[in-house]
Design goal:
Length: 179
C-alpha cells in the first residue's frame, strides 16, 4: 500500500483524493503527505499498533490463556461463570503482579480470542415460577391503566383538533362564553 500511496503523491494527487481512493481518513492521508517528501517510501512504512505495548511476557500470556480456560470458579469467582474484564484485570494483578485497566483487559481478551461477558444481576435464590405467577396474578391488578387513545394528541404544542368530537365534549362545538 505504501508504494501505491507514494505513486499517487508522485503524480501530484491531493491528500483528499488519496484518502477517498484508499478509503482512509483525511488525517492519515495528510500525515502521509507530510512524511513522504522527507523520507520517501520508507517514511510511509507502518510503525505497528499504537498505544503501550503489553507488559506480559509471551510465557505469561500463555499462562493467562490457561487460567481463562479453567473458568472463573477456579480462581475464586463462584457467583457465575463469566469472565468480565474487571475480573481478568484482577487476575492479572494477582498472578503476574501487573496492573491493567478494564479497557486494557478487554483489548487483551479480544487479542487472545476471548470476549468479556456481562453477568446477569440476579439473586441466586430467585424462583422463576413465583416471579411468573406474580406477574400474571398481581401485576395486572397493580398496573395503572393507560389513557385512552382518543384523549391524547400527537402534538406537544397544540391540543387535539376538535373535529369529530361530540358537541358535549370538552372543546367541541362553539366556545363557551367566559365569565
Amino acid at each position: 500500500m505504501r508504494m501505491h500511496v507514494a505513486g499517487l503523491f508522485e503524480q501530484k494527487v491531493k491528500p483528499s483524493e488519496v484518502a477517498r481512493q484508499l478509503r482512509v481518513s483525511l488525517k492519515s492521508a495528510d500525515q502521509w503527505h507530510q512524511l513522504w517528501p522527507h523520507g520517501g517510501v520508507q517514511a510511509l512504512a507502518c510503525r505497528g499498533p499504537s498505544g503501550s505495548r503489553c507488559r506480559l511476557l509471551p510465557r505469561c500470556l500463555q499462562e493467562l490463556v490457561a487460567y481463562l480456560e479453567q473458568g472463573p470458579a477456579a480462581h475464586g469467582w463462584i457467583e457465575d461463570q463469566v469472565w468480565t474484564a474487571a475480573r481478568v484485570a484482577t487476575l492479572m494483578g494477582r498472578r503476574f503482579h501487573v496492573s491493567c485497566s478494564v479497557p486494557g483487559a478487554t483489548r487483551l481478551m479480544h487479542r487472545l480470542g476471548f470476549s468479556p461477558q456481562v453477568p446477569a444481576r440476579r439473586v441466586a435464590e430467585r424462583d422463576e415460577q413465583a416471579v411468573t405467577a406474580w406477574k400474571e396474578a398481581t401485576w395486572a391488578e397493580v398496573k395503572e391503566p393507560g389513557r385512552p387513545a382518543a384523549a391524547t394528541s400527537a402534538s406537544r404544542t397544540r391540543q387535539a383538533s376538535p373535529v369529530g368530537r361530540p358537541g358535549h365534549a370538552l372543546g367541541g362545538g362553539a366556545a363557551a362564553p367566559r365569565r
